[in-house]
Amino acid sequence: MGPVTASASLEVSGLAFAYPDGHQALFGVDFSVARGERVALLGPNGAGKTTLVLHLNGILGGGTGTVTVAGMPVGKRHMAEIRQRVGIVFQDPDDQLFMPTVREDVAFGPAAAGIRGAALEERVRTALELVGMGDFADRPPHHLSFGQRRRVAVATVLAMEPEILVLDEPSSNLDPASRRELADILRSLDVTVLMVTHDLPYALELCPRSLVLSEGVIAADGPTGELLSDDALMRAHRLELPFGFDPRSVTMGA
User: Fold this and answer.
1) Per-residue pLDDT, 6
2) Among residues 224, 153, 172, 162, which one has the least CA distance to residue 193?
3) pLDDT by residue (tens digit) across 32-66?
């Protein structure tokens, strides 16, 4: 780990955290993500992935170590700006969609941040276009398919023009076509992406680099294809490839 560079979107250093009941989830996590990188965060259940994600925009805090986003330490002083810079898309889109129409859901964050009028309309239009949902602005979210709702949930975060998009299990519960559509969208975005996933083929398809979080520390950090091809590493951290899937046979997209 070198010094913090201006080009790092995200820098996590010595992050350790225990819950009030004494359960320690993180034991000293170190990694940095450069501007525009797409990185997968892999690991078995209970490895601390969700705990780590909740530190990235200050939902959880009070442990030791530091998280720095675009050069700003995550903490009370910069909280409003950090929340705008780090957009988290949770696993269940219905946690993020609660307004009568798609347009109002996507406008909610920017409006709360004080954006009004034509500028707000532009934010909404751009975010919906980015996820291929431009024609659905006036629809009630609960009339959409699950895959469409997930794309709108991504748009609600993109409307804040974040520096980092954090996705929690983005492919879960998607049919193959929806999964591919979302992959195409994520590849096209000009943001830093940190993707928490159990879906190892999806990680390989979308993220050139992966981190393996295991028992509260980063156990491996390297090119996704190399990590998934390391049988001993995979076994040691209870990472299972789907039956018949050979990461060595997959040609990586750009």
Assistant:
1) 52
2) 162
3) 999 999 999 998 877 899 899 999 988 898 889 99
